Amino acid sequence: MKTEVLLRRKFLNGEIRQSNQTGFLNVNDLLLYGNQWRIMNHMKTFDYNSWYNSSSTKEFLKEMETHFGKVIISKKGKTGSRFVHPFVFIDIALSISPELKIEVYSWIYDELVKYRNNSGDSYKKMCGALYIYCKNKSKFSEGITKTAKMIKSAVGISDWQTANEEQLRLRDRIHENIALLSDIFRDNNQAIRIGILKALKK
User: Which of 41, 77, 160, 161 is most buried when burial is the number of CB atoms within 10 A of its CB?
Assistant: First the structure.
């Protein structure tokens, strides 16, 4: 999937944005919620600049760049957000508090980004298959919008950027089912209805 989507992962009392293209995570989000957590736990706020300018961080970032290339990306705009490589994100999270490490480590091993990209690709495949057998092509986009809402409802989610792995896997199965069944039935309404039901039964 080529289009960048910012996934939103639950973290403490908020969310952390993550790019589906690079896997990089938003450090501004981490600092906001991490420092809120520190304040609630009667700790001094974490200073990103002190972390960044320390000699140990400089050595770490240099080594990271040798292996992975650019590991900190600053995006311009009002927020001036920074996105960092997952390993850099872990280092900052551990500096904020070692208690956060289990949650953050788990993100490195999950496959949320992969499933988000897969379900985006399968969506395009489904749309292509449905277009072939669409009886009124002038109203195709209207029909696809309705289908997308039905799939969201079936999966039980209102925003795909907050979906978990299982929800994205289910979405992918629905897309694949509909694409396959539209070719068998040559009736989009039937393909959509049965495609959703079949995926939910697994």
Answer: 160
Tell me how far apart the alpha carbons of residues 122 and 115 are, in angstroms, rounded to a whole number.
Answer: 10
Lowest mean pLDDT segment, chosen from 71-80, 159-168, 181-190: 71-80
Domain containing residue 29: CATH number: 3.10.260
Instruction: Please tell me whether the overall predicted TM-score, pTM, comes out greater than 0.70 for this model.
Output: no
| The amino acid at 153 | S
The reply to whether 26 and 65 lie within a common domain is yes
Tell whether 91 and 116 lie within a shared domain: no
Q: What phi-psi label fits residue 113: left (phi over 0), alpha (psi between -120 and 50 degrees) or beta? A: alpha
Q: Which among 96, 81, 108 has a CA at the least distance from the CA of 17? A: 81
Which CA distances in Å does 56 have to 20, 62, 132? 29, 10, 58
Cα 68 to chain centroid, rounded: 21
User: Is 151 in the same domain as 195?
Assistant: yes
Which pLDDT tens digit goes with each residue over 127-145?
999 999 999 999 999 999 9
User: Each residue of 70-108: pLDDT tens digit?
Assistant: 999 998 765 568 999 999 999 999 899 887 767 777 776
The domain tally of the chain equals 2
- Same domain for 69 and 134, yes or no, is no
